[in-house]
Fold this sequence. Notes:
The complex is a heterodimer.
Chain A: H1 2-35, E1 37-41, E2 45-48, E3 55-63, E4 68-74, E5 77-88, E6 91-104, E7 107-111, H2 115-118, H3 121-127, H4 144-160, E8 169-170, E9 172-174, E10 178-185, E11 192-202, E12 205-218, H5 221-231, H6 233-257
Parallel strand pairs in A: 2-12, 7-8
Antiparallel strand pairs in A: 1-3, 3-10, 4-7, 4-11, 5-6, 9-10, 11-12
Helix pairs in contact in A: 5-6
Chain B: E1 2-5, E2 10-13, H1 14-31, H2 36-45, H3 50-74, H4 80-107, H5 110-142, E3 162-165, E4 170-173, H6 175-191, H7 196-207, H8 211-237, H9 242-263, H10 268-291, E5 298-301
Antiparallel strand pairs in B: 1-2, 3-4
Amino acid sequence: MLHLRARPCLSAALLACLGLCLASLWLLVREARAQALVADLSEHLVAITTGFTGTDVVLFGAVDGPGAVALVVQGPEAPVSVRRKGRVAGIWVNTEEMEFDRVPAYYSLALSQTLEEMAPPAVLQRHEIGLDHVRLVPKHPTSAEEVAAFRAALIRNKQRDGLYSTAPQDIVFLGQRLFSTRIHFPANVPTGTYMASVFLIRDGDVVSAQTTPLTVSKIGFSASVSDYAQRYGMVYAVVAILLAVSAGWLAGVIFRKS
Amino acid sequence: MQVYLPIAEISVNALLLLALGGGVGFLSGLFGVGGGFLMTPLLIFIGVPPAVAVGTQANQLVGASVSGVLAHWRRNNVDVRLGSVMLVGGVLGTSFGVWLFGVLQQLGHIDLVISLSYVFFLGTVSLLMLWESVGALIRGRIKAAAPRKLHHHTWLHGLPLKMRFPRSRLYISALLPMLIGFVGGLLVAIMGIGGGFLLVPAMIYILGMPTALVAGTSLFQIIFSTGIAAFLQATSNQTVDVVLAMLLLVGGVIGAQFGTRAGTRLRGEQARALLALMVLAVAAKLAVDLIVRPEDLYSITRPVSP
């Protein structure tokens, strides 16, 4: 009896779901008429669980007419030191250092056209669209040449870690109004609050923009472990050592018999 | 099978970690060294942040040493009295090392100091051991058993605070094992290794301990010095990753048991020559890395607040 009733129930739920999706899309389109640009993420929380290997989040939205769309996702900001090695007495040693104050931990870009076609550099600069335009300011000002070299090195290192996108992702238009794209978060994504900013650009200028927050957070077992390590350092240390001792002891006892 | 490491904040294949632990554990059981000097660079190589590699390694070594000591304990190959005296130095060395680590970190040269001390300690010790053990092997071929002087008298025997160590049949100054323990503790804190590769030859050549007792006694001492280091790292820096440590341990303790068994079939000189070659290879690799121009001259780190 339950089985028989479960099926229509399921299809009803599916229908309702589909209806809800269509309704929200319709709402989006309607809202877009009023607002020029509306966008949202498929998820607002990236949960880092024990099996986490990276994930994709879908951004979808609608515009009220023709124009180019750009998406910038930036991770939490923190100071970063960039060091340069030089040769001292035959070995490579860190000789110079430059500290940047507010460096986004993560930066990715998605575009519906190329940056050059989209807007002049001044506009891109203002909205930090494109890695060349990210605001990276050294703590202690030095010569422009040096800053450029260290800045490029910082971006290069972040790209090597997979945290800054190397090439912009495509934003795909479905028809005239609806668009979507994917944002990839690698396994080593730092935790914190991210900002996904969508820009609608017409005739080389931003006519509408929307920013949506996104949280990257450890969930479940890995969250409890790091939480414990942070808050109860002593208990964590003792437990870790006891675990190690008992594992070693256990192995010793098991192997005596064989 | 990918596993997310909560403190290291990276995702790694669990089977790879088990295999790494097993391989290094086998070698550690075989030679009576902790294997930290192999494991720490390997962990950094697979993407674990260096600070987490050092802290977790200390924790992992506690378990590996317990398991190793048990096997030696059953064969009555642990000199507890001598190990305890070494431990006094070990505690002092670890505490001093943690302080020194902080100072070097502020000066911004901790990576270089770690690399240089690896090259210096590993290089010197391995060359000395290789020289001695190859010599012993060749001599062993020529004469079945070279007559060995039972007792060399050097200035080392003139030091004060003499103590009797009946298990090792030694009557030496307590300062000697304490000093060896101190250096070992220093290495635990700065290099994230148990220091067995240095303790083992020092106990053989400086103290003149019977070779059979050396592995068990050094492991006994390492349990405590790594335990203190793990505690300090976990409480002050939060750099001990329990998940990583456990995965390495499971592989490590099993590997160590097989290693200990294989070790009983190796002659002392053979084991020492093999260990020396392995340590020399690690030192050579690190030396090359210091001399060859790096692919990218620039690197990024989180700034250390003074």
